[in-house]
UniProtKB/TrEMBL annotation, chain A:
Residues 98-277 form the ABC transmembrane type-1 domain. InterPro entries: MetI-like, MetI-like_sf. GO terms for biological process: choline transport; glycine betaine transport. It comes from SAR324 cluster bacterium. This is ABC transporter permease. The keyword DNA repair does not apply. Keywords: Cell membrane, Membrane, Transmembrane, Transmembrane helix, Transport.
TrEMBL record, chain B:
Keywords: ATP-binding, Nucleotide-binding, Transport. Gene3D superfamilies: CBS-domain, P-loop containing nucleotide triphosphate hydrolases. This is Glycine betaine/L-proline ABC transporter ATP-binding protein. One of its GO terms (biological process) is response to osmotic stress. InterPro entries: AAA+_ATPase, ABC_osmolyte_uptake_ATP-bind, ABC_transporter-like_ATP-bd, ABC_transporter-like_CS, CBS_dom_sf, Gly-betaine_transp_ATP-bd, P-loop_NTPase. Residues 6-266 form the ABC transporter domain. It holds the Pfam family ABC_tran. NCBIfam families: proV (TIGR01186). It comes from the Bacteria. CDD domains: ABC_Pro_Gly_Betaine (cd03294). It comes from SAR324 cluster bacterium.
Length: 294, 403
């Protein structure tokens, strides 16, 4: 009797699957429209932002981007590098797709930060919350993206919003984890000082915990951006336009060069985001390094 | 006697999962070690009773692990006790609501930390102003006051620097300025100078003594350094394994140690530096107030010594010798005592430390007169009493020495 693993009867298994599938289908039929309408503001913003990047003259976008890079990093070398890379991207005909990807990554990152930092704060404040949220984050990071794409697509169909949701689900854990970690690592004596002088919890959070956790939080944001970029190709499977679609096309048709070029464009975007966010983080932490310069 | 400002009654602190459940065990008299082994709970503080007076510097001394840092955190409830009462100006602070506690911390007490605990991302002036900023006082006012306090602690011109640009001593000055800036009446100092090197530490002690002379705050100072405790403290409490071993003035601690633990502690203290003349001097053996030589001689003969201190309405004048008086009496008994009969022996002040008066004591044949700043004779310091206090004596003798 130990030859075979005792399994559930096929009929029962089928029954479970049917019940869940049908249940979710009914749910999405009944509430899909309402839920979709909740995301309308996000969709409107996505469309507006993408149009802004696509319809503005290319030289203006280029100037603004280079300007932002310089503002963030205060490094003309980095700014020049970014400028040259974007000129190359445009020259090889990938400008529009790059702008679309830039737009969706930017919005996804913004959504991740806006949702992720408060969750991270909650986690840092309560061990109970932490023990609830940590396994969720583990699931979000390890569950294959295709699996949670199914219900998202069933609910919201294909398009930009499900794309953003898929990207956010995958990319948000680092910012949550590192916000939590950063706040927990703040020197206990400094927190005691804040308490001893009668700071309330908002003064404690905004004046001491968040600023001192900022380097760690920025590392989390940086990770989030990188993970968002790595989702571009998968997101393109549910109809998100951008650099992911040509890559997907080259996989199915074995166009090596097309894939390589678009892949390189994604790499350029990654480097841009990474260097700028790191340089910005470092610049805001200048007070930490003064001693080593002196 | 100045009024009591902080009153601690039957304070216990147990660390562990269910601290309250351990209280009966402690009350039964179970030892710390036993409780730790059987229940996994650590008894941090045990039956602490303290009265701290307004305007005094109260030093709590103990080695690491004695619970001193835990104790000081009870004063502003950074740590809540397992049992016991803490009253500040008659108010039981255990009963304060979170909001009231915040107000209490903002206005009544401020704290200086061992590792400074400055906000690394703010300039010094913002750090000093922190206590006021938290109170919601307009920025401009805060910064003005902060600037003044930075100047007081000797850091004028450093306003826009960051803490990381400063040395340890300077950072702690900022910590002190931050504490003083709120005008809180009670100052908690948690091993405030322990992280500094010896020279800077003694400088900071001087500065604190100087400031305290002006400000008259109530200071609760934690240290593991007995010399520091003796130097700063009006009274000292010695803490061992979470229990108070002795509370008393520095002299009491030095000369009347309560048990072997304190005795071992004070053994290596340089008494010549720690004790003042006042604590060692004895009442003057013989004082002469007479006007004529004859009367003076009579007064002197009542005592065994062959010298006496001559005191008039204007205070201490000098020493007269029996020999001189007898010679003078042989010629004219009714002659008035004059300066030629008086030896000019320098007086010492009751507040000087022993070390400073050792040479004078050795070079003078008589016990040195101790004269206070009003000019009155208040005692004498003989070589013998000095030697008794400073010399090698066994502990039993030292315990029975008068203070």
């Amino acid at each position: 009797m130990f030859d075979k693993f005792p399994t559930m009867a096929r009929a029962d298994l089928l029954h479970i699957r049917k019940t869940l599938d049908l249940g979710f289908r009914d749910f999405s039929r009944a509430y899909g429209d309402i839920i979709e309408s909740l995301f309308d503001p996000l969709l409107a913003f996505l469309i507006w932002f993408e149009r802004l990047l696509l319809h503005s003259p290319w030289w203006l976008v280029l100037m603004v981007l280079t300007g932002l890079v310089y503002w963030g990093s205060r490094s003309w070398k980095l700014s020049l590098g970014v400028l040259i890379c974007f000129l190359a991207i445009g020259y090889f005909g990938m400008w529009d797709n790059t702008m679309r990807t830039l737009s969706i990554i930017t919005v996804s990152t913004m959504v991740s930060i806006v949702i992720g930092i408060p969750i991270g704060i909650v986690m840092a404040r309560s061990d109970h919350a932490r023990s609830l949220i940590t396994p969720l984050l583990d699931i979000m990071q390890t569950m294959p993206a295709f699996v949670y794409l199914i219900p998202v697509v069933m609910l919201l169909g294909i398009g930009k919003v499900p794309g953003v949701i898929a990207v956010v689900v995958y990319a948000i854990p680092p910012v949550i984890r590192l916000t939590n970690l950063g706040i927990r690592l703040v020197d206990r004596e400094i927190l005691e000082a804040a308490d001893a002088y009668g700071a309330n919890s908002w003064q404690r959070l905004s004046g001491v915990q968040l600023p001192l956790a900022l380097p760690t939080i920025m590392a989390g944001v940086n990770q989030t951006i990188m993970m968002a970029l790595s989702m571009v190709v998968i997101a393109s499977m549910i109809g998100v336009k951008g650099l992911g679609q040509p890559v997907l096309k080259s996989i199915t048709n074995q166009y090596f060069t097309l894939g390589l070029f678009n892949g390189l464009a994604i790499v350029v975007l990654a480097i841009l985001f990474d260097r700028v966010s790191q340089a910005y983080a470092k610049r805001t932490q200048k007070y930490m390094g003064e001693v080593s310069n002196a | 006697m100045p009024e009591t400002i902080i009153e601690i009654e039957g304070l216990y602190k147990v660390f562990g999962k269910k601290p309250k459940s351990i209280m009966p065990l402690i009350k039964e008299g179970q030892g710390k070690q036993q409780i730790l082994e059987e229940t996994g709970h650590t008894v941090g503080l045990k039956d602490i009773n303290l009265n701290i007076r307004r305007g005094e510097t109260f030093v709590i001394m103990g080695l690491s692990g004695s619970g001193k840092s835990t104790l000081i955190r009870h004063f502003n409830r950074l740590i809540d006790p397992t049992a016991g009462k803490i009253k500040v100006e008659g108010v039981d602070i255990m009963k304060l609501s979170p909001k009231k506690l915040q107000e209490f911390r903002r206005h009544k007490m401020s704290m200086v930390f061992q590792r400074f605990a400055l906000m690394p991302h703010w300039t010094l002036i913002k750090n000093v102003a922190y206590g006021l900023t938290v109170q919601g006082i307009p920025q401009k006012q805060c910064l003005e006051k902060a600037k003044a306090w930075l100047k007081t602690v000797g850091l004028a011109g450093y306003e826009e620097q960051f803490p990381s640009q400063l040395s340890g001593g300077q950072q702690q000055r900022v910590g002190l300025a931050r504490a003083l800036c709120t005008d809180a009446e009670i100052l908690l100092m948690d091993e405030a100078f322990s992280a500094l090197d010896p020279l800077i530490r003694s400088e900071m002690q001087d500065q604190l003594i100087g400031l305290q002379a002006k400000l008259q705050k109530t200071i609760i100072f934690i240290t593991h350094d007995l010399d520091e405790a003796l130097r700063l403290g009006d009274r000292i409490a010695i803490l061992k394994d979470g229990e108070l071993v002795q509370v008393g003035e520095p002299v009491d601690i030095l000369l009347k140690p309560a048990n072997a633990y304190v005795r071992a502690f004070v053994k290596d203290v340089n008494r010549a530096r720690a004790l003042t003349v006042e604590t060692v001097m004895k009442p003057p053996a013989c004082r002469i107030t007479a006007e004529t030589i004859g009367e003076a001689l009579e007064q002197m003969k009542k005592h065994s010594d062959n010298y006496a201190y001559y005191v008039t309405d204007e205070g201490y004048q000098g020493v007269v010798l029996q020999e001189t008086l007898e010679k003078a009496a042989a010629t004219d008994k009714d002659h008035k005592l004059a300066s030629k009969h008086i030896e000019d022996i320098p007086a010492i002040s009751p507040g000087s430390i022993l070390e400073a008066v050792i040479p004078e004591t050795l070079y003078t044949d008589y016990a040195l007169p101790v004269v206070d700043d009003k000019g009155d004779l208040c005692g004498e310091l003989s070589r013998i009493s000095l030697a008794e206090v400073l010399g090698e004596m066994n502990v039993d003798q030292s315990a029975s020495l008068p203070s």
